[in-house]
């Protein structure tokens, strides 16, 4: 025997009913089948609404007519598709059913209230009609059907609207029914009968519960729950796109999952199948051949001992505390007894080791009720100040990780807490079930989805994801996207997934949280109707709860640099070759770093100084190990390195500058290089990194351009005018050559933070002598590195090496 339960979405329309009938027919080829049916999708909700509207004297005729029309259309459409379907008989049944419903509603309207026994009869109408329709379909296909009346066979204990079933008595009743061996059994879900033979309903997920009980009563081998999902997932796939389907879970794991918010099954459903060791299979009606999830007595998937992450929203935490509790015996018992007596559901409990504090979580809507109960219970203690006033924290959520034997698995708790910490989520309370099947944490409700995603990413996903929003599509930005595209497959093999979620420049923006294809990103950006908007990027991350968002600023825009603190406070990491943020005033410089620490974000800018050279990273490591900078000098501009190398070879100054610009060595405006301001910014960053609190204006700059050039605003005009300097530089180069030296534009940091930039003549013994062709060279004379300096040398300009440096910084986000 196998019991199949079909939910409302599985019976949403005529096509669904006929599809379910096909599934039943396929199943009876192998064994006898019992079927439990829900009402068609949304019908029960509509009926509840109609009753409530009638009680409140609102017009309900259109709502009732809508339900009636739904069933009439359902019968008509099935009749068109199913041969020999008993349409007239079922239409007559339907008419009688709605006459009764209308009579009930007239009485409710007169009374302005609805007795619970009438309420129960109304809201289960959909299930009864479903059974009649399915019986008609199967009998028209020449199958023999036995209808099990749950009012007569299932003994309900409790109220009319929320009963549980006496399984022993129900089993005895059902086993006394004469059932032919080849009959298909059909029963309405959600319904039972009390000791007086009156109809009662079984509350939330009542049809699932009916199927579990019928499985026990008929000693079925399997109970199959057919629904609109493939089975039980590690997380809600609507909130966590990479949630994984679970092939097996144990009864205990299923109980914990459902208790802490998973919507697939209710704990009330799991209890009878667990008690009587009946395997339960969750199946997708739309994909009957899909494997589904099997719930059994043992964990058959021992490798994956963590089974899922669930959450409960709208929670509140009560804290009962005070030094007077030290000598009080039975405080916890009084708290929980008071809650139990008033039927307040306690979801989670924690207690301090000193026993001065007892905390527990309840649903938010129970706050006022629970407060009154506790204040009454501890009235004397509160009056005499033996305990503190009841403290209540609202707007909380509980995230629970479910799995077998987690108490004995090392490092699980650490991974959970670390994942939450890395997304800057504060843990308010922690609880671990004595069953070893769950670890729960209480967090702010505003962070719950992000927290679930972060924990799921840590526990279930081997891939480390980075969600990138690129600002700036100039030479470096374009080259970076090319490098990421080229390297994507190789990184995937290393379980690194770089997802480009946004690309923007000053005019356009393109956002897709699923990832933008890099094959044709430029066309898509140009065709995008959206203009660049920082708020849109921030809102995208908040709305979709992205775990690891990164802003890559490949612009040279001061306005973008001014937004870095906003990005950090909104949980973005920042990677940037843009020097503007690090060279703004010292207060802003410090604030960026404080926010990076506060919000546990990374701010990476190695390309600020040496393009692809790991200058900042190495300098930071030196300083962290106790080294001290004594003196620094270096060539910090790949553009000027290239230009002066060309001058050594006899190329004119103006021609060398044009070549440097054409090759992408210069800043977008070459005057930033030739004025010395770009080198000054780099030198300022190095000086601040060492600890000198100086400003850009404190750096002494010997410009290689006469003051008259400062008035020129047009770049083209500027490049034409520098031809006037060709003779001057020709003479300077020859003069240096005659004494065995070369001209180099260098930056210097002396003790006390004295910084200078100048055009210097260096000889063959100087580490900067051979630097040309776009190379940078940085000589650090430190406590550890002297008299020979630590020398970093390599290409310091060009889109390719700068993009590679940005790429390297991006990958450091994962470290």
Secondary-structure map:
Blueprint: E1 2-6, H1 14-27, E2 33-37, H2 43-55, H3 61-81, H4 87-111, H5 116-123, H6 125-140, E3 145-148, H7 150-153, E4 156-158, E5 163-165, H8 167-175, E6 184-188, E7 191-193, E8 199-201, H9 206-217, E9 222-227, E10 248-250, H10 251-259, H11 267-275, E11 279-284, E12 293-296, E13 306-321, H12 331-341, E14 348-351, E15 357-363, H13 367-377, H14 379-383, E16 391-403, H15 412-422, E17 429-432, E18 438-444, H16 448-460, E19 464-471, H17 475-493, E20 496-504, E21 509-511, H18 521-527, H19 534-544, E22 549-553, H20 558-561, H21 564-569, E23 573-575, H22 586-598, E24 603-604, H23 607-610, H24 615-624, E25 629-635, H25 638-648, H26 653-662, H27 671-674, H28 677-690, E26 700-701, H29 715-721, H30 726-738, E27 742-750, E28 754-762, E29 775-782, E30 790-795, H31 799-812
Parallel strand pairs: 1-2, 1-9, 2-6, 3-6, 9-11, 10-12, 19-20, 19-22, 22-23, 23-24, 26-28
Antiparallel strand pairs: 4-5, 7-8, 11-12, 13-15, 13-16, 14-15, 16-18, 17-18, 20-21, 25-27, 25-29, 27-28, 29-30
Helix pairs in contact: 1-3, 2-4, 3-4, 4-6, 8-9, 9-11, 10-11, 12-13, 15-16, 17-31, 25-26
